[in-house]
Amino acid sequence: MAQERSGAATFKGNPITLIGPELKVGDTAPDFTVSKNLLEDASLKDFAGKIKLISVVPSLDTGVCDAQTRRFNEEAAGLGDDVVVITISVDLPFAQARWCGAAGIDRVVTLSDYKTRSFGEAYGVLIKEFQLDMRSIFVLDQNDKIAYVEYLSEMTEHPNYEAAVEAVKALR
């Protein structure tokens, strides 16, 4: 059974349980399998050699998640070709595609953790009570070492956008 971290975070002030380890700067990022669409999967190796900013959101159809993804889409324009910005949620792949089309998101790769919650468990962000991934940010270097991590303590708060972008820039 995967490690559970009770009370590791809250949703509107109410404690929630996160499943999986708490990763730290310097750790090697665990692999994962997520969906690009219904027929194609993606994993960490698909982004080999790139700096990765992984923005995790519970659902793109909520206000903070929408704003977070739009912000990183804007930031991606100035980060260069050696950086990939990935948003992971448990939204179905076609819901992600619909949302991206409506929002004009064209620089962020959206991936879905809906099938197995592989990413959520490996990165310690799977919310036991909701089966959603907790808002968090991971920056990985070209060799998949974690250079920055932010686990939000309250699901409805925004991450530190500036610190995440600065962590990416520091790797260049």
UniProtKB/TrEMBL annotation:
Q: Does the keyword Oxidoreductase apply?
A: yes
- Identify the EC number(s): 1.11.1.24
Q: Its biological function?
A: Thiol-specific peroxidase that catalyzes the reduction of hydrogen peroxide and organic hydroperoxides to water and alcohols, respectively. Plays a role in cell protection against oxidative stress by detoxifying peroxides.
- Kind of enzyme, top EC level? oxidoreductase
Can you provide one Gene Ontology molecular function annotated for this UniProt record?
Answer: thioredoxin peroxidase activity
Which residue ranges traverse the bilayer?
A: none
What residues sit in the active site?
Answer: C65 (cysteine sulfenic acid (-soh) intermediate)
Q: Which UniProt keywords apply?
A: Antioxidant, Disulfide bond, Oxidoreductase, Peroxidase, Redox-active center
The name under which this protein is listed is: Thiol peroxidase
- Which reaction is the catalytic activity of this chain? a hydroperoxide + [thioredoxin]-dithiol = an alcohol + [thioredoxin]-disulfide + H2O
Q: Which residues form the Thioredoxin domain?
A: 23-172
Q: Keyword Transcription regulation: yes or no?
A: no
Extract the HAMAP family matched here: Tpx
Q: Which family does it belong to?
A: Belongs to the peroxiredoxin family. Tpx subfamily.
Taxonomic lineage of the native organism: Bacteria, Bacillati, Bacillota, Bacilli, Bacillales
Superkingdom classification of source: Bacteria
CDD domains the record matches: PRX_Atyp2cys
Instruction: Fetch the InterPro entries from UniProt.
Output: Redoxin, Thioredoxin-like_sf, Thioredoxin_domain, TPX, Tpx_CS, Tpx_Peroxidase_subfamily
Coiled-coil stretches are none
Self-association and partners:
Homodimer.
